[in-house]
Automatic annotation (TrEMBL):
Organism superkingdom: Bacteria
Biological processes annotated in GO: formate metabolic process; respiratory electron transport chain
Protein name: Formate dehydrogenase subunit alpha
GO molecular function list: 4 iron, 4 sulfur cluster binding; formate dehydrogenase (NAD+) activity; metal ion binding; molybdopterin cofactor binding; NADH dehydrogenase activity
Keywords: 4Fe-4S, Iron, Iron-sulfur, Metal-binding, Oxidoreductase, Repeat
GO cellular component labels: membrane; oxidoreductase complex
UniProt KW Transcription regulation keyword: no
Domain 4Fe-4S Mo/W bis-MGD-type: 8-63
Whole-protein coverage range: 212 to 911 of 911
Record-stated family: In the C-terminal section; belongs to the prokaryotic molybdopterin-containing oxidoreductase family.
Length: 700
């Protein structure tokens, strides 16, 4: 008879895609992941979305890099190579690790010693582990000698974090999204969780089924609208006016929580004076929402025994993203909707480890745990731990670094796991800037659009190939475990960072992520009582955590905020400089984002068989009326043009879109949405307004 096949081994880990942080099990047989199953983690209770279940065969895709690559002498860096991988590949030759690391590290050292540390910059990644993020920022700060280190949090929730730190002293969520279970009212604004945080969306749906009131505010209709009690379909870019109008109603009708404000919040008089001008009747035309529903929702929110606010990129990816978040935070504070069960502020994190990478200091103006670079005492603490000096000057942010490269001020870069040649706004300029660098080192799984412009490409390990911790949207620090070996000569990312550090003169000897975690715990009080061994045993621990056997606090700020005096601050929002609004030449609003099947710049998901089969190509979505007016049937070819560029792709009908607004996902290199986007930044969060620019839309 047949011998039964040996059972698959199950390795417990975490999903590498979105910030929900679902726990999963890789079923491994013969060194390959055969299947992925959900495990009972605190954020997913066994559930997974299509990405977590089917998003892993990119590991063995034929494009996967297995050896280091070095640019062939004299092969020109041409931004056009970003969209033509085969042409890009012809400009590289394979090299040994010895040669590649020498070339990679020496090129950066020559710039550091010849021109100066400020001519260097590094982009780390929110898709790596906490340990990698921590070591990467330490390498840039102590090996390069600059704070020019950032990652895609700048393109994601930088505005939210800026406003949260200013208002309540902490950039993390005050409650997990699973707290919707205890909420009477759930306010979702500028987020599409059914697509971008699918498992979080299942908790919202269950809460509504149980009887919670759901309010959805967004310019674009979404699947959640079907179960919403109230829908505020406001005009793109009018977030501040809408939220200030809600504040106006609450304060003028005395619906706020005076006891909470008196005990814990400053700035009410200033806010009251500021929102006096925002009566719903005065701004209804501007908002595109009649006064009555604004008043209704404001009253519902204020009177709700427990209201939780969830927001996403619609709030933060704006040239006034910080103001958007300020207004949202003010709403919660004046009504006392924070610090209790079922209440809270929750910016839904986009990437699996954007919380952890930010906590670890992978940002230019802050050290680990958000100690400001220009705080001498904080710097001294970390300098003592590291035995190194840290530049007191805050570094440049993602978009600023690319702009500086374009001017020739930044001359060398080390990019680990990020893809600015797809993710930055105004790509024509960003790609030209990357091509202009004297020396670019890219560490990634594939020859990405960014790697196409590199001098040295270091083949990286993928998440299922490594051990490490990640921190999700809920502040849950979770253990990821290696399930399979990396292909070919690929090395662990942590080992590559250490090798690069040694080429730059640092005497690092970290051999395992547990050593790095132990050092992080010394640098970061937020990790108190969380150890590597504990995570191996428990898989997930929430920070802050009061004792080695305590579960961690899911709801924080019961009685004080982590500010100097324990009180929160209301900061009036707006008016701010508007985004690039439609005009006669560019009459449409272009908005960009993700879709369910594809992750960010598509590097992994477009090479995952099932995901690619479901959503194989770029489409631009339009309202049915706009399609009709253009004389195009769904699927017909469309050309979208902005002041930065043009892309062409097939159209898709989306009845959820208001007329005059088109949506383009940014995952597709053949129709790269960011060729079109506006590089202007929010003045405080330094985040570009990916959600809104003016466009022309034509058949073709
Ligand atoms: Fe992964 Fe997010 Fe999907 Fe969970 S919801 S399986 S973390 S992509």
């Amino acid at each position: 008879g047949h011998r039964a096949a040996p059972p698959a081994r199950e390795v417990a880990s975490v999903c590498p895609y979105c910030g929900v942080g679902c726990q999963l099990g890789y079923r491994v047989r013969d060194g390959r992941i055969e299947e992925v199953v959900g495990r009972d983690g605190p954020s997913n209770h066994g559930r997974l979305c299509v990405k977590g279940r089917f998003g892993f065969d990119f590991l063995t895709h034929p494009d996967r890099l297995a050896r280091p690559l070095i640019r062939i002498d004299g092969a020109a860096k041409d931004p056009a190579d970003c969209t033509d991988p085969s042409r890009a590949r012809g400009k590289f030759r394979e090299a040994s690790w010895g040669e590649a690391l020498a070339r990679a590290g020496d090129g950066l050292r020559v710039i550091r010693d010849g021109i100066g540390p400020q001519a260097l910059a590094g982009f780390g990644s929110a898709k790596g582990s906490n340990e990698e993020a921590y070591l990467f920022q330490k390498l840039v700060r102590t090996g390069f000698g600059t704070n020019n280190v950032d990652h895609c949090t700048r393109l994601c929730h930088a505005a939210s974090v800026t406003a949260l730190l200013e208002g309540i002293g902490s950039g993390a969520v005050t409650a997990p999204f699973t707290a919707v279970e205890d909420a009477d009212l759930i306010f979702v604004i500028g987020a599409r969780p059914t697509e971008n945080h699918p498992v979080a969306a299942t908790f919202i749906k269950q809460a509504v089924a149980r009887g919670a009131t759901l309010v959805v505010a967004d310019p674009r209709g979404s699947e959640l609208d079907r179960i919403a009690t109230e829908i505020l379909r406001f005009r793109p870019g009018e977030d501040v006016a809408l939220l200030n109008a809600m504040l106006h109603v609450i304060l003028s009708e005395n619906l706020h929580d005076p006891a909470f404000v008196a005990a814990r919040v400053d700035g009410l008089d200033g806010l009251r004076a500021h929102v006096a001008a925002y009566a719903p009747e005065a701004v209804e035309v501007q908002c595109g929402v009649p006064a009555e529903p604004i008043r209704r929702v404001a009253r519902l929110y204020a009177r709700s025994p427990a209201a939780l606010t969830l927001w996403g990129m619609g709030i933060s990816q704006s040239v006034h993203g910080t103001d958007n978040a300020r207004a949202l935070i003010a709403l919660s504070l004046v009504c006392g909707q924070v610090g209790r069960r079922g209440t809270g502020l929750h910016p839904l994190r986009g990437q699996n480890n954007v919380q952890g990478a930010s906590d670890a200091g992978l940002i230019p103006m802050m050290l680990p745990d958000y100690h400001r670079i220009d705080d001498a005492a904080a710097r001294a603490t970390i300098e003592a731990l590291w035995g190194a000096t840290i530049d007191p000057k805050p570094g440049l942010t993602v978009v600023e670094i690319i702009a500086a490269a374009g001017r020739g001020d930044i001359r060398g870069m080390y990019v680990m796991g990020e893809n600015p040649a797809m993710s930055d706004p105004d790509l024509a300029h960003a790609r030209a800037a990357l091509a202009r660098l004297d020396h670019l080192v890219v560490q990634d799984l594939f020859l990405t659009e960014t790697a196409a412009l590199a001098d040295v490409v270091l083949p990286a390990s993928a998440w299922p190939e490594k051990d490490g911790t990640v921190t999700n949207s809920n502040r849950q620090v979770q253990m990821g475990r290696a399930a399979v070996a990396p292909p070919g000569e690929v090395r662990q990312d942590l080992a590559i960072i250490v090798a690069m550090a040694r080429r730059l003169g640092l005497d690092w000897t970290y051999a395992h992520p547990r050593e790095v975690f132990a050092e992080m715990a010394q640098a970061m009080p937020s990790l108190a009582n969380i150890t590597w061994d504990r995570l191996l045993r428990e898989n997930s621990v929430t920070y802050p955590c009061a004792a080695p056997d305590a579960p961690g606090e899911d709801i924080v700020f019961h009685d004080h905020f982590p500010t100097r005096d324990g009180r929160a601050l209301l900061v009036p929002a707006g008016p701010s400089d508007p985004a690039e609004m439609p005009d006669a030449a560019y009459p449409f609003v272009l908005t960009t984002g993700r879709e369910l099947e594809h992750w960010h710049t598509g590097t992994m998901t477009r090479r995952a068989g099932v995901l690619d089969a479901i959503e194989p190509s770029a489409t631009v979505s339009l309202a049915p009326g706009d399609l009709r007016r253009l004389g195009i049937l769904p699927g017909g070819w469309i050309r979208v043009t902005t002041r930065r560029g043009t892309v062409q792709c097939a159209s898709r009908e989306d009845p959820g879109l208001p007329e005059g607004v088109v949506f383009l996902p940014f995952a597709f290199r053949e129709a790269a949405a960011n060729l079109l986007t506006d590089p202007r930044l929010d003045p405080e969060g330094r985040i570009p307004g990916f959600k809104l620019c003016a466009a022309r839309v034509e058949p073709g």
